[in-house]
Amino acid sequence: MSHSDPLVIAGREYHSRLLVGTGKYKDLDETRRAIEASGAEIVTIAVRRSNIGQNPNEPNVLDVLPPERYTILPNTAGCYTAEDAVRTCRLARELLDGHDLVKLEVLGDEKTLYPDVVQTLKAAETLVDDGFKVMVYTNDDPIIAKRLEEMGCVAVMPLAAPIGSGLGVQNALNILTIVENARVPILVDAGVGTASDAAVAMELGCDGVLMNTAIAGAKDPVLMASAMKKAVEAGREAYRAGRIPKKRYASASSPLEGTFF
Asked: Which of 5, 50, 124, 136 has its CA 20 to 30 A from that of 184?
């Protein structure tokens, strides 16, 4: 990605628009290799499922993803109430020496993993008031997305499809509406299955894409990470370039006027 087109989150510039998770890999070495291949600079870690210092006698994911190299984005995966999510963020801040950038997600049920919007709004308000810089996972509702922005979230992250489904962007018009009305970064979070899904999200004008399962669950996670890196870059460039309008009928690539026959 061109350094003249940075992603800016909470006042900090990033050159990669691909954010990646750390779950579901077979081991920490595969985690490291896949994330290196992705080119990601922001790495999200589920505080309730990963050791970032809570268990000093167990392998620490930060040993292979050092905070000096990556921006660590603690997330509240597995939380179903605002109270649990807030408590998890405060634990992460303590473990990471005052780190205040977090990814908030409050789930509604175990089957769909859809966000509980009411609990998400409640947690976001508390965390913003407590000085956190909140990147928030939500549904693809433009009204809720705007409300979260107005509350002070530094980035809004609507789902493309259910978490881990691999279905790709299911409601492009809603995502487009969210992007058009936003003054903070909009990043698609959840539902990406392959490189073309990531490209579609970026072509809609999203500022970035966050994914985990699409890479970690691939037959070759390291190769898929590389593919996703290229897809995000290509989608961003296509968005900036401006696609041609869709037409019902053919349009000659070369004009007929001025030909020699």
From this structure: 50
* Cβ–Cβ under 8 Å, residues 226 and 245: no
Q: Tell me: the pLDDT tens digits for 189-210?
A: 999 999 999 999 999 999 999 9
For residues 105 and 120, the answer to whether their CB atoms sit within 8 Å is yes
- Summarize pLDDT for 140-156 with one digit per residue, the tens: 999 999 999 999 999 99
Q: Which residues are catalytic?
A: 103
Let me know: does 70 contact 43? Beta carbons within 8 Å: yes
Sequence-distant (6+) residues with CB within 8 A of 189 are 137, 157, 158, 159, 160, 209, 210, 211
Looking at residue 70, its pLDDT comes to: 96
Q: Which long-range contacts (CB under 8 A, 24 or more apart) does 23-26 make?
A: 23/49, 23/50, 23/77, 23/212, 23/216, 24/212, 24/213, 24/216, 24/217, 25/216, 25/221
Which one, of 141, 152, 209, 133, lies nearest residue 181 by Cα? Answer: 141
- In eight-state DSSP terms, residue 158 is E
Would you call 133 helix, strand, or coil by DSSP?
strand
